[in-house]
Amino acid sequence: NVATLEYLQKGILAVPQMGCVDDAKDPLFGTDNYDDDNFIAYYACYTDGIWLWPQYIIEYIKKYPNIKIDSDFVKHVIKNKDKKISVSEEECSKIEKEYYKKFWK
Fold first, then answer.
1. H or E element: which one contains 69?
2. How far apart are CA 54 and CA 2, in angstroms?
3. Residue ranges of the alpha helices (H) in the chain?
4. Could you give the angle at the alpha carbon of 79 between the alpha carbons of 1 and 92, nearest 5°?
5. What are 53's strand-pairing partners?
6. Rounded to two decimals, what is the model's pTM?
């Protein structure tokens, strides 16, 4: 997962959002206890122009290195890990619009 983590960290911010994500593995996840330390990341999605991933997956990999990751994505990372990620603002805007159409109907 080291190569995957490094690749994910090179991603370009495509879908900025407000709010934060709690650690689903924290024993207090889903409770009304807001004093716990289960913050994992802010809502945001990054891209390499082909794949889109939430920022919190980076933090989950750091915290839980054995977390299962989609095998097709891992193959994509291995194939592209040494390539520079370059996504234009126009492409990011298109990705963001498609994201909202798909996930926020």
1. none
2. 17
3. 2-9, 55-63, 71-80, 89-103
4. 85
5. 46
6. 0.75
Helix (H) or strand (E) holding 17: strand 12-22
Q: Which amino acid is at 97?
A: K
Distance between CA atoms of residues 4 and 80, nearest Å: 10
Both structure tokens of 13: 């911010």
d(CA 76, CA 11): 13
Cα–Cα nearest to 15, from 84, 97, 103: 97
Task: Fill in the DSSP letter of residue 105.
Answer: -
Q: How many CB atoms lie within 10 A of CB 100?
A: 12
pLDDT digits (tens, 9 = 90+) for 47-73: 999 999 988 888 888 888 888 889 999
Helix (H) / strand (E) containing 43? strand 39-47
